[in-house]
UniProtKB/TrEMBL annotation:
The keyword Isomerase is annotated on this UniProt entry: no
Keywords from the named record: Signal
Record's keyword annotation contains Signal: yes
InterPro entries: Acid_phosphat_B-like, HAD_sf
Record's protein name: Acid phosphatase
Signal peptide: 1-18
Top-level taxon of the source organism: Eukaryota
Length: 130
């Protein structure tokens, strides 16, 4: 009976600690974090919120990365996640381009545009780094 209990507990531990992708950190963020007025800030969380707001164009007219988020943005842009995000976007753009039906009359053209975020951040990063 003791052996059965030991095997059961070992199995539960293995299942609860296992992950389908190695290296994934299990982060839990509170829906209403206790930060800001009257609370202690949670390191990195405000930068995650700032990044999401910028990416969804909910912060309009920002000129530079907030000073407290420089390290976060630098780690993101030089890290694996930025490359993964870029690959995902490039793949979707490629699939979209493949799905288009061209007229075949030689008048079809592609116009490539540079995202305004890249234009606004490039001089800042060139001068200040991350």
């Amino acid at each position: 009976m003791a052996l059965l209990l030991l095997l059961f507990l070992a199995n539960i531990l293995t299942i609860s600690e296992g992950t389908c992708e190695p290296g994934i950190v299990k982060q839990i963020h509170l829906l209403r974090p206790r930060s800001g007025a009257g609370g202690n800030s949670i390191p990195g969380l405000s930068c995650l919120s700032w990044r999401l707001a910028v990416e969804t164009n909910n912060i309009i007219g920002w000129k530079t990365v907030p000073e407290e988020c420089e390290e976060y943005v630098g780690h993101y842009m030089l890290g694996k996640q930025y490359r993964k995000d870029s690959r995902a976007v490039a793949k979707e753009a490629f699939l979209y381009a493949q799905s288009l039906k061209l007229a075949g009359d030689g008048k079809d053209i592609w116009i490539f545009d540079i995202d305004e975020t890249t234009l606004s951040n490039t001089p800042y990063y060139a001068q200040h780094g991350f």
